[in-house]
Amino acid sequence: MSSKRYKKLSENTTSLTAEVIEKLLPNIKKNCTTKFDESVDLSIQINNKQKKGEVNIRTVVNLPGGTGKKVKVAIVCEDAKASDAKAAGADIVGSDDFIEKIKGGEMNFEKLICTPGMMIKLSKLGKVLGPKGLMPNPKLGSVTENLKQAVSDAKSGQAEIRNDKDGNIGVSIGKKSFSDDKLLKNYNAIIETLEKEKTNNTLKGDLIKSAFITSSMGVSYKLKLGKNI
Fold first, then answer.
1. Domains: count for the chain
2. Taking Cα atoms as reference points, which of 65, 39, 41 lies closest to residue 181?
3. pLDDT the model gives residue 69
4. Nearest CA to 112 among 88, 84, 90, 89?
């Protein structure tokens, strides 16, 4: 059942003609009528069913405007590298003892980074970390010796782009309080990343079937995209 607040918002927006994001942002912000700083979110569906098999996208993008969120970063590393990990800005640092805590369900962090040497031990916790999207991955820059860069990326505004089995991708481009310029920069960074994924996967035709934009508690609007994606 819809709330009185929600009922006051625009109705039947999905039947409207698709518009470019620049024209939709004012409407999105106008619909942010809650007391908290709502997120501005993209919902994208890709053509993941291809003749040569399914397309699975999993990558990260550094958002130039940031995410507006404080990210708690944990590092699993050798004891000898603990001081470097703390100096890099990690909130939690540990070795074998920390892995045991994770195994027991203690996961009070949003991002987990691991050195290559500890990944063998951590990989055994795939059933614990995998479902929560916390398993470090070399392709995503979270298995690395460059701890300072990894922590900086995670805290400054890094978003993961990953589609589910039905080809859906959900990702935030920031907060209502962000300037339109910040939101546009983050949006363009995500679209550019998807364009690269299309090229890397040598896909024919459009990668994206449809794309919508909304706020956390708002209504959804259909996005008009460029021709090359």
1. 2
2. 65
3. 87
4. 90
Spell out the residues 6+ positions from residue 146 whose beta carbon is closer than 8 angstroms to its own. Answer: none
Read off the tokens for 208.
Answer: 């994206």
- On the CB side of 9, CA atoms within 13 Å amount to 21
Average pLDDT, the chain: 90
Rounded Cα–Cα distance for residues 123 and 65 (Å): 33
Instruction: Tell me what pLDDT residue 1 has.
Output: 45
Beta-carbon count within 10 A of 170 CB: 12
| 80 and 147 in a common domain | yes
Amino acid, single-letter form, for residue 99: I
| Dist. CA 55–CA 111, nearest whole Å | 25
What letter represents residue 159's amino acid? A
**Predicted structure pTM score:** 0.83
Q: What CATH number has the domain bearing residue 27?
A: 3.30.190.20
Average the pLDDT over 80-108 and give the result. Answer: 95
Strand partners, 161: 59
Residue 4: band (very low, low, confident or very high) from pLDDT cuts 50, 70, 90: low
Q: Which two tokens stand for residue 9?
A: 């918002």
In this structure, the answer to whether residues 120 and 53 fall within a common structural domain is no
For residue 109, what is the domain's CATH number? 3.40.50.790
The tens digit of pLDDT for each residue in 127-159 reads 999 999 899 999 999 999 999 999 999 999 899
The C-alpha angle with vertex 128 and arms to 111 and 113, in degrees rounded to 5, equals 25
Using DSSP bridges, classify how beta strands 39-46 and 168-175 pair: parallel, antiparallel or unpaired: antiparallel
Answer yes or no: are the C-beta atoms of 212 and 220 closer than 8 Å: yes
Q: State the residue range of the domain holding 46.
A: 4-57+163-222
